[in-house]
Amino acid sequence: MVSILAYTEKEFAMIKLGYILAVLLSLGFAVSVTNTAYANDLAIKWTQSRQVANSLGDAAKAGDKAAFTKLSELANHGDNGPAMHNMGWLLDNGYYVEKDKQAACDWYKKSADLTDYPPSMHGYALCLFRGTKGKKSGDDEVLGRELMFDAYMMGWAKSAIILSEKILNDPFLDKGDAFQAFSVSKSTLRTTSPTPDEFSSLQYLVGMATIYGFRDIDQYREGHAAMSITVSSGHLRANEALADIEILWVNEVVRKIETLESYENSTAKRFVENCHESLADQSLRFPVIEFCKKTTEIEFEYVRQLEADYDYLASWMVGESGEKIRPKYQKLNTLAKPYRRAKRNWEMNFIPKYNARALEHHGSP
Predict the structure, then answer these.
(1) What is the mean pLDDT of the chain?
(2) Per-residue confidence at 215, pLDDT binned at 50, 70, 90?
(3) Is residue 193 predicted with pLDDT exceeding 60?
């Protein structure tokens, strides 16, 4: 297994492009607007009109002239977003009528402008990404992203997927952008009812945001879990992405182990000594001691987190990656022993005295 850190900038760009193409291939349902029965978490006001319009649209697709006529009547009232959207859907795909992408876009736009119907906002955004009237401009891209964001906020999972993919495919992607994609995909998984394909793609994007933007243990853990789910669903290239997350995660754990000082030379030891001295000094205000306690426990937590990460990684750490981290873990184990002893001493001696001083200060430890 080759470390991702060994890739050249150009090679990494090609890997990134490959992942994005995999997302697009797996999202055929998302890049052409579909008349899906899944409503995600759309507002309840759309429930009845959506069911009626979708039924008429499906019947028209099957060749039912009366259903098409009724759908057309509802759409032309100007206040029925789902009906207008279904007219666009029929034209977009050439169902019952001759395929006409521009006319479809006009219906999506009308529905989005007049009713704020999320699927239509999504549909018109896709039109803008392709370019209106055969031309594409920067303004189209900006407006398209705004519409995608609004549709995502209104509970349309497809928009979250396309929006996250757009963010991650940006050549000027930075950590802030990756975090946005991570947050959009995560919140959609948490707050909507995505289809199985949407669920798989959202998990994939959570994992990909981890690869692109994070160097944080908690996000690696979350990205690894998300990509593992994606692998089990058979998503394209998810296995490769999972391996890259694992390598990046290992590299980060190793980096942190290598920067860890011995306890005798650590800031933790100095903090512990300072805290004991502060606690003994009755003239010091309690908030000073409280701050000392918090900063010391951060130092202890750093080592505890490294140990927890190794325990989690060890369950699948084999081959080249396992060989790489094993000697580092031995170093971690050696360095951590005095930290563990110091923490036990801290908990047995400092904390009871601190709690007593806290009780004096504000009535509770």
Answers:
(1) 80
(2) low
(3) yes
What is the domain count for the chain? 1
- Predicted TM-score (pTM) of the model is 0.64
pLDDT at 37: 38
pLDDT at 271: 85
Contacts of 59 (CB under 8 A, 6+ apart): 67, 68
In angstroms, the CA 22 to CA 320 distance is: 27
- Of residues 336, 247, 353, the one with CA closest to residue 300: 336
What are the distances in angstroms from CA 185 to CA 180, 308, 359?
9, 26, 45
pLDDT at 303 over 50: yes
- Provide the pLDDT confidence category of residue 103 given band limits of 50, 70 and 90: very high
Look-up of token digits 């981290």: 325
Q: State both tokens at 24.
A: 């697009």
In a domain, 296, yes or no: yes
Residue 276 inside a domain? The answer is yes
- Residue 336: inside a domain: yes
How far is Cα 64 from Cα 56, in angstroms, rounded to an integer?
9
Say how far apart CA 48 and CA 67 lie, in whole Å. Answer: 16
Amino acid code (one letter) for 246: E
Domain that holds residue 298: 260-362
The two tokens of residue 23 are 């997302």
358 assigned to some structural domain? yes
